[in-house]
TrEMBL record:
This is Glycoside hydrolase family 130 protein. The keyword Glycosyltransferase applies. It comes from the Bacteria. InterPro entries: Glyco_hydro_beta-prop_sf (IPR023296), Mannoside_phosphorylase (IPR007184). Keywords: Glycosyltransferase, Hydrolase, Transferase. One of its GO terms (molecular function) is hydrolase activity. Signal peptide: none annotated. Belongs to the glycosyl hydrolase 130 family. It holds the Pfam family Glyco_hydro_130. It comes from Candidatus Limivivens intestinipullorum.
Length: 341
């Protein structure tokens, strides 16, 4: 019996696996036993797929996938699946058009997110705009993809749209950064009346004193609306003598004023421990980009990039993860204030 309600559609055909009986894990999130769900060389001309986003569509599932081409340049590919575990990818890159109907192909495109607001699906990713910045496009049928103007100036990464308007406005998380492997970074939330003009920027949360997220943080999956507030899975990064380590964190944001953090988990929810998270092109990366969740059962499947090489799947329930976040919550002034100075 679920106490924390997910507000949204029922998706009874979502992927699911019960927590293994022999799990010694105290954390509320557990890995799919058949991970990684997408292995190396998954499509023609694509060496690796990771950091990708999926969504229920037309009784099945569709997704936007970061495909690292064999020339080393990342781009976004469309994939389809009946069970959200086994995926087939289009051979061609997503054919964006601009608003005048002209072909548009970013020089590179990575870490896409896919979010439905009302009857439109929005894709947001990182691309070159005289420096790394956010690219944005919309589609209603996954056949025509209209690129909308870049929402923010460089440098910025990790854009994540909320799945509904809040007080009549679109809201988007992003992480202002630098031109390289940014050694800092907080999450901000911006609003727009029309997906074109963005403003009323608010600070959401900073990197924290928690060791696992003490270098930078960035938005992950689109926030999930629940009876406790917006449930956000994000990534938190720490630095070691061998490079960055990316873990998955969790927070609950105020439903009407999402720049206010109600609860923020002081421990990670998942950190690189499995071979496919520890070993790959960039070791020790767990990078969440999407969830599929079912309001009826409260089940949540988290899609995350593993070691910049694979896609992994992990599970939790709204009840378990929200209670855990609340029990382990530590919030500071920069979390709980509205975030304008
Ligand atoms: C970040 C992004 C992610 C990547 C991560 C680890 O800066 O580029 O795409 O997963 O680094 O390499």
């Amino acid at each position: 019996m679920s106490h924390v309600k997910i507000i949204g559609p029922n998706v009874p055909n979502m992927p699911w696996q019960d927590r293994p009986a022999d799990s010694r894990q105290e954390l509320p999130v557990w890995r799919y036993s058949e991970n990684p769900i997408i292995g190396r060389n998954p499509a023609k001309g694509v060496a690796r797929i990771f950091n990708s986003a999926v969504i229920p569509y037309d009784g099945a599932f569709i997704g936007v996938f970061r495909g690292e081409q064999t020339n080393g340049i990342p781009y976004i590919y469309l994939g389809r699946s009946k069970d959200a575990i086994h995926w087939e990818f289009d051979e061609e890159k997503i054919p964006f058009k601009d608003e005048n109907g002209r072909d548009f192909m970013p020089r590179y495109a990575y870490d896409p997110r896919l979010v439905k607001v009302e009857d439109t699906y929005y894709i947001m990713w990182c691309q070159d705009f005289y420096g790394a910045s956010i690219g944005l496009a919309k589609t209603q049928d996954f056949k025509t993809f209209t690129r909308i103007e870049n929402p923010f100036i460089p440098f910025n990464r990790n854009a994540v749209l909320f799945p509904r308007k809040i007080n009549g406005k679109y809201r988007m998380l992003s992480r202002p950064s630098d031109s390289g492997h940014t050694p800092f970074g907080d999450i901000f939330v911006s609003e727009s009346p029309d997906m074109v003009y963005w403003g009323r920027h608010r600070h959401l949360m900073s990197n924290s004193g928690n060791w696992w997220e003490n270098v930078k943080i960035g938005g992950g999956a689109a926030p999930i609306e629940t009876s406790e507030g917006w449930l956000l899975f994000y990534h938190g990064v720490t630095g070691t003598c061998n490079g960055y380590v990316y873990s998955i964190g969790g927070a609950i944001l105020d439903i009407d004023e999402p720049s206010v953090v109600k609860y923020r988990c002081s421990t990670f929810l998942l950190t690189p421990e499995a071979w496919y998270e520890e070993r790959g092109f960039v070791p020790n990366v767990a990078f969440p980009c999407a969830t599929i969740h079912d309001a009826g059962s409260g089940r949540i499947a988290i899609y995350y990039g593993c070691a910049d090489t694979y896609v992994g799947l992990a599970f939790t329930t709204a009840d378990e993860v929200v209670s855990y976040i609340k029990e382990h919550s530590v919030v500071t002034e920069t979390d709980t204030e509205v975030g304008i100075r």
